[in-house]
Amino acid sequence: MTTATSAAFAARLRALIDAASARPEIVGLVGFGSTADRDRADEWSDLDIAVIVEPGQEDRLRRELDWLPRPERIALSVVDQWDALMVVTDDGALMEFGIARLDAFTTWIADRAEVILDRGGVEPALRQILARPARGVDVAVETRVALVKLLVGAGRARRGELLTANRNIRGEALEHLLRAWAAALPGDHAVLDSLDPHRRFERAHPELAARAEAALRLDAEGAARTLLDLAEETLGARDDFPREGAAAIRRRLGWD
Question: Which long-range contacts (CB under 8 A, 24 or more apart) does 241-244 make?
Answer without folding.
Answer: 241/140, 241/143, 242/140, 242/143, 242/144, 242/147
